[in-house]
Write a structure and sequence with these properties.
The structure is a single chain. This protein has 344 residues and is mainly beta. The protein has one domain. 3% of the residues lie in helices and 47% in strands. The chain has 1 helix and 19 strands.
């Protein structure tokens, strides 16, 4: 199985790289003292040109994404040791020391709210990184956001990645439609303004429904999805359950719409495409003013495509809390990075 990381920049470019195999065998007539010539009554037989080896089909077993202001520092590897619980997220700048440590308190709170993701933190002396991580039999995925000690504006970097652990991800029946149900988790970095003077971190969870049609479009198929039932937590994993004047929590304020993407059937990956964070409530709900654009991509995993997993990045002004006086949403600039895993 080729182990390759693809990167997805905030601007939406998705690039792939592939490993390559070695060269062909040595000339079978070059040994001994015959000098490649027939013996006895045989005529001279020229050595045929070796058959060229086929190019390996790119098999993106890993996806990663940079979430900084540029695409120079993507997460390019997730290394998890199930025996020790050690988690290493590679190639994120100013993350100080790996491995990341599991935050037992925040993890227990996320799980009590129905999530199967765990929360992690780095041992920071420079930038604080917060991450969510989940591993199944077929995939492992992580999303990390930073709380910078230097830059109090949206330039900090983090990362998201998903890695196929088992199988090619190929779905078993052609010309079929599949539905995958699962869950989502992410990290939100809140950038300061006059209403929010300190850069903060939030966790977010949700449920997912990913629909796949591998018959239409003809050559590429199509896949789309939703992230619903969102819940928002502070950096300690405490759920924000306060409600606004209409009885909605911060989690109720938005949902994610993963717009239709195409499928690469050679490696059973989902191409990079658009997604939206949609305002569920308020005067601009369901209008362009109520949507924040982002990007998403993913892959299928397992010997029979048992799971689909993907990554999401979105940034814009969105509700982060409830004003205790007015009862209205408090909104600031947020970068949300997340991942999902669904089962069919």
């Amino acid at each position: 199985m080729y182990r390759i990381f693809l990167t997805l920049a905030v601007a939406g470019a998705l690039s792939a790289c592939s490993s390559s195999s070695g060269g062909g065998d040595d000339d079978p007539l070059s040994s001994g003292d015959t000098d490649g010539v027939g013996v006895g009554e045989q005529p001279l037989v020229p050595e045929p040109e070796p058959e060229p080896e086929p190019e390996p089909v790119p098999s993106p077993d890993k996806y990663g994404a940079d979430v900084g202001a540029s695409a120079t520092a993507p997460m390019n590897d997730i290394d998890f040791d199930p025996a020790t619980g050690e988690l290493v997220l590679n190639n994120m700048t100013f993350d100080d020391r790996n491995p990341f440590d599991r935050d037992d308190t925040a993890s227990a709170r996320l799980r009590a709210a129905g999530s199967r993701y765990d929360a992690y933190q780095n041992a920071a002396t420079v930038d604080e990184y917060y991450a969510v991580f989940r591993r199944t039999d077929y995939v492992q995925t992580a999303a990390a956001g930073s709380r910078s000690t230097v830059f109090k504006r949206p330039v900090d970097v983090g990362g998201i990645g998903v890695e196929r652990l088992s199988g090619t991800g190929a779905l078993p029946v052609a010309n079929a439609t599949y539905v995958f149900s699962g869950e989502y988790a992410g990290v939100r970095t809140l950038y300061p303004d006059t209403r929010n003077p300190q850069e903060q971190i939030q966790y977010v969870t949700g449920t997912t429904e990913i629909t796949v049609d591998i018959e239409d479009y003809d050559e590429t198929g199509s896949v789309r999805g939703l992230v619903l039932d969102r819940k928002v937590f502070d950096a300690m994993g405490v759920e924000l359950t306060e409600t606004n004047a209409t009885g909605d929590t911060v989690g109720d304020a938005t949902y994610l719409r993963l717009d239709p993407n195409t499928i690469n059937f050679e490696n059973w990956s989902i191409d990079s495409g658009n997604m939206q964070m949609v305002r569920r409530n308020g005067p601009d709900a369901g209008t362009p003013a109520g949507e924040i654009g982002g990007r998403w991509s993913g892959l299928f995993a397992g010997p029979n495509g048992e799971e689909v997993a993907g990554i999401v990045v979105v940034q814009g002004e969105t509700p982060v809390g409830i004003d205790p006086v007015s009862g209205e949403y408090v909104e600031v600039t947020v970068r949300e990075v997340g991942s999902f895993v669904g089962e069919r």
